[in-house]
């Protein structure tokens, strides 16, 4: 099913967040991370950023000199030295 959605997005040239309710993470090297379809920013420091991506999961980014360089209603971009990017259950203690 995800392949079909990806093909439709490519054919129609529609933004990912207008076709799917899933979140999408793109990481370029260890310097830039882009998240589409996030739900809420939960924690933000220059060493740790926690983002709720759906009802059950968070994305936890750890690094150095982390900065949110772009944010809007459904997308954000993070720059800095990204050391880890983990998907975790909301009920887990980290």
General description of the model:
The protein has helices at 2-12, 16-19; strands spanning 24-28, 32-36, 40-44, 48-52, 57-71, 75-89. By secondary structure, the protein is an alpha+beta fold. It has a six-stranded antiparallel beta sheet, with no helix packed on it. The mean pLDDT is 82.
Give the tags.
single chain, 94 residues, alpha+beta, six-stranded antiparallel sheet, globular
Rg, please? 14 Å
Mean pLDDT: 82
Pick out the low-confidence regions: none
Apparent shape = globular
Q: What is the total tally of β strands?
A: 6
N-to-C SSE series?
HHEEEEEE
State the separation between the terminal residues, measured CA to CA.
Answer: 32 Å
Helix content: 10-25%
Note the beta-strand portion: over 45%
Number of helices: 2
**Largest sheet at a glance?**
6 strands, antiparallel
Which structural class best describes the helix and strand composition? alpha+beta
Strand order in the sheet with the most strands: 1-2-6-5-4-3
What can be said about this structure in brief?
The protein is built from two helices and six strands, in the order H-H-E-E-E-E-E-E. With 94 residues, the chain is of the alpha+beta class.
How do the strands and helices of this protein lay out in sequence?
Elements: H1 2-12, H2 16-19, E1 24-28, E2 32-36, E3 40-44, E4 48-52, E5 57-71, E6 75-89
Antiparallel strand pairs: 1-2, 2-6, 3-4, 4-5, 5-6
């Amino acid at each position: 099913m995800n392949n079909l959605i990806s093909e439709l997005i490519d054919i129609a040239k529609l933004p990912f967040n207008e076709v799917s309710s899933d979140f999408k993470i793109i990481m370029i090297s260890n310097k830039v991370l882009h998240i589409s379809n996030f739900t809420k920013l939960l924690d933000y420091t220059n060493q740790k950023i926690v983002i709720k991506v759906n009802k059950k999961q968070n994305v936890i980014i750890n690094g150095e000199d982390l900065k949110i360089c772009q944010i809007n209603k459904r997308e954000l971009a993070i720059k800095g030295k990204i050391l880890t990017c983990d998907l975790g259950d909301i009920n887990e203690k980290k």
